Amino acid sequence: MSDAAQPTAADVRSAAEAVKTALDRHLAAVERRSGEDDPAVSEAFNQLAAAAEAYDELLYDRYDEVTPFEIPGAEDALPPYAGPEEPNAISVLIRRDYTVAEPQRLLAQAQRVEAAEIDDGADDDDAAGTVPGALGILFGEFEPDEIASRHKEFGLEEGDSTLWVTAAEEPPEAGEWLEAPFEHIDPQTVVCRFDVSAVFDEEDSAGEDDEELDFVEEDEELEPLDAEK
User: Where is this region: Disordered (predicted)?
Assistant: First the structure.
C-alpha cells in the first residue's frame, strides 16, 4: 500500500471495534442456533471472518503487525454436502507425501525385493539401481498402507497427508476413470476429509523435528524385510 493510501490509526481502531462487534454477534447467533446448519450462524461467521480479515490487513499496513488469526479462504473450505442422502457407492481419495530421506536404504530394500523375484524366476532388469526404479518396485510389492506404517524401513520420511471420502448414487463403470482418476471430483460430494500435517501441531512436534535422521552406514546390517505381500 502506498503512503498516500496508508490507513490512519483511527482506521485501525475502527476495524478493531468492528471485530469486537462481529464477535459478539457471532456468539449470540451460536447461543440462539436452531440447528446444525443454522443460516444465522453461518452469516455471523462470514461477517466475523470479513471483519477479522479487514482488521488484519489494516493492522499490517499501518503498523507492520499481524494477528494470530488465520481466516480460511473460500478455496480452502469445502462447500456444504449436496450429494445423495443415501449413497450406494463411495470413493476414497488419498494423498500421502514422503521425503526420500535415506536413498541408500531405499535402494537396498528394493534390491532385496528384486533379488527375491529373480530367485523365483523373474527377469533381472536392475530396476532397483535408481531411486525411481526402487520406488516402482517397492510400491508395486507392498500395499500403500504397509509402506505408510513401515516408511522408515524404506528410507522415507512422512509429510502431509489427506483422505477424502466422496459419495455417489451408483458406482462407476469398470475402467471409467482410470485415465484421469483424480479429475472431476465434485467438492459437494465429499462426505468427510481427514488431514494430517506438521503445521497442525508444530509446537508439540518441535522437538521431533530437530531429531537427527538415523542414516544407514555402509556396514550397517539392514533389518530383515519380508518381501511377501
Answer: 203-229
